[in-house]
Amino acid sequence: MELVQTLDDYGKPAWIALMVVSFIVFWPIGLAILFYLIWSGRMGCKSRNWKSKAEKKWNRARTAFHSTGNAAFDEYREETLRRLEDEAEEFRTFLERLRAARDKAEFDQFMDERKSNGKKSENPNDNAGTVPQAG
Questions:
Q1: How far apart, in whole angstroms, are the C-alpha atoms of residue 6 and residue 131?
Q2: Taking the model in full, what pTM does it have?
């Protein structure tokens, strides 16, 4: 496990280099390393679960702030962070409302088109889409 920690310290390039060398030396080992990297999430896309990862980083960063000894600055910093969190939450709420409005508009447009297409096909002279009767 010390090797894994060392490679994690160097980052993705070290893992990729090890995988390439393993494929060259003996391909099943390279394949095993590739599966391990995918399974462990070390080579995963950064955008996956970005929201929860970002919140974890933000919380970690907030707890990392220690008192500077200047009470006025500490109070200002806490108020600014609180304000930024509130603005971020308001923005997320705005985006959710925007997406919901867009989805509703698209659905309403679909329903209107469906209704207008339905009225056209009710014409008795219009045989489009009907199966002729054998008789």
A1: 70
A2: 0.38
